[in-house]
Amino acid sequence: MQARPAYKECLKNRHHRPILGEYLSSLPNPAHVKAGKIAAKVLGEMKTEIKPEVKIYRLCVLAEKKILKYGGQPAFPTGVSINHVTAHYTSPAGDRSTVPDWGLVKLDVGVHIDGYIADTALTVDIDGSLEGLVAATNDALQEAIIMMNPGTSLSDVGKKIEDVIGAYGVRSIKDICGHDLKRFKLHGEKKVPNGKMRNAGLVEVGETYAIEPYASSGRSVVDSKNVYVFSNTGKDVEFEGVEEKLRIYLREKYGPFPFALRWIRAKEDLDIVQPFRELLKHKAVRGHPVIVEKSGRPVAHSEHTVFISEEGPIVLTQLD
């Protein structure tokens, strides 16, 4: 599918030039700018790594190593979600799954520096058979960004996303929303809906948003039984022995940020599986299930992190 002329013109006028430095006030924290640049760089480099038969585990680990190499910290485990798998898939230890020779691969990267978070994602169409879905989310994302000016209704942004995706003959996945980003908090109180939503609030100066349209020929998504991403709840539950040591370690190591069990470097003679189950049982940690499209239809995803200045949106997760 071809992008609509209005969209191309918007890209020409607003997004095909360096955006930082155009604004005189309400600039983002330098650490936030750096986190965004790292996220953009890693996403761009990893896009070329997504090829048939490449192990998903390799993609996840390589992206996280790059984040550390460039001076950031992972804000969450790298997500590599394929076809109907929509979000929250990161390889567990021993994962042997690979990139297929057809369909959509969604790469979701998060970086933080001193708690300032950048969240970005793209979709790769492996064989070129589903380019309309990818174009739909890319188009919707760019047009949503243009709308992110102070005072704009987030409900109107959601309607725009839905309308743009609908123009491609597919559906916006409204079960998932974008969100504002706070320091040390991946999901704030505000949502960027992917469809019309009442009372979503207004865009305000100084806020940061992760805008993330999803498109599919399906209708909705559900939680699967698989869980590979976890986070501390902050609930004060004290344990004894290994469980308590593990609880303290997870809090000190990852704080409020999501983590993967494959990240935990336990001693060879220490089995953490049962202790971790106890932490889950007593809600000291919680899991974030892999999200899938209910009818098994492929899903596309595009995402940028945007800071709201007095003069308009500043896209943090793109390179100059």
Outline the structure in words.
The protein is built from seven helices and 16 strands. The protein is 30% helix and 25% strand. With 320 residues, the chain is α+β, with helices and mostly antiparallel strands. It has helices spanning 5-15, 30-47, 56-69, 131-147, 154-166, 241-254, 273-281, and strands at 73-74, 79-82, 85-87, 104-113, 116-125, 171-172, 178-180, 191-192, 208-211, 214-216, 221-232, 259-260, 285-293, 299-301, 304-309, 312-315.
Rg computed from alpha carbons, rounded to a whole number of angstroms: 19 Å
Q: What would you say the CATH architecture of the largest domain is?
A: Alpha-Beta Complex
Class from secondary-structure proportions: alpha+beta
- CATH superfamily label of the largest domain: Creatinase/methionine aminopeptidase superfamily
Percent of residues in beta strands? 15-25%
Total of DSSP H or I helical runs spanning 4+ residues: 7
By DSSP, the count of extended strands is 16
Task: Report the mean per-residue pLDDT as an integer.
Answer: 91
Run of helices and strands: HHHEEEEEHHEEEEEEHEHEEEE
Distance between the termini: 27 Å
CATH class of the largest domain: Alpha Beta
Unreliable segments of 5+ consecutive residues:
1-25
User: Main sheet?
Assistant: 5 strands, antiparallel
Kindly give the count of domains: 2
Share of helix, binned: 25-40%
